[in-house]
Amino acid sequence: MFNVSELLFTDVTWGLEDGEEVDWLAALRRGLPAPIKDLRSMLNRGIEAGAIQYVLEQQPEVMPAFLVDPPN
Predict the structure, then answer these.
(1) Helix/strand number for the chain, H first, E second
(2) pTM here?
(3) What value, to the nearest 5°, has the Cα angle with vertex 48 and ends 35 and 53?
């Protein structure tokens, strides 16, 4: 399992040469390459490329109030 920060880390470091340094401040300011709403399609592309093996979706047994009644 992973969180979005791990997705950012993978995006920033994928394809780097050994010893190549990352400008983390610039990477954090740039953010993810696609809106988070496109996460499902990004995961599908990762599965097709063989970089991701499993994708699990979880739903809590009791939904937190902020998910049941989103603010307007």
Answers:
(1) 4, 0
(2) 0.40
(3) 90
The CA distance from 35 to 14, in Å, is 19
Give the number of other Cβ atoms within 10 Å of residue 10's Cβ: 13
Query: 4, 36 in Cβ contact below 8 A?
Result: yes
Q: How far is 18 from 70, CA to CA, in rounded Å?
A: 45
Distance CA 66, CA 15 (A): 38
Write out the two tokens for 5.
Answer: 């920060």
Q: What is the pLDDT of residue 36?
A: 63
A 10 A CB-CB count for 39 gives 14
Report the amino acid identity of residue 7: L
Q: Two tokens at 12?
A: 């920033």
10-residue stretch averages of pLDDT, the chain, 72 residues long: 70 81 82 68 82 75 75 62
